[in-house]
Specification:
- With 55 residues, the chain is of the alpha+beta class.
- It has one helix and five strands; from the N terminus they run E-E-E-H-E-E.
- It has a domain at 24-55.
- The strands form two sheets. A three-stranded antiparallel beta sheet has the order 1-2-3, with no helix packed on it. A two-stranded antiparallel sheet has the order 4-5.
- The protein is globular and about 25 Å long.
- The termini are far apart.
Amino acid sequence: MLVAVDPGLGVLPLWWSAGRILSKDPSDPVVAEMCEVAKVQGAKVQGDDGEHDDA
């Protein structure tokens, strides 16, 4: 399990599985940070309904 610190939530768990990082109901700041990490890694942030987030 990976852990991201979110000032609004304290600690938010992130799971890494099959080459993906998963989260449950991330806050906007966490999604923004996930987008930054994805950009560096050449990856995408995708929601449950298949939408892509470019935050």
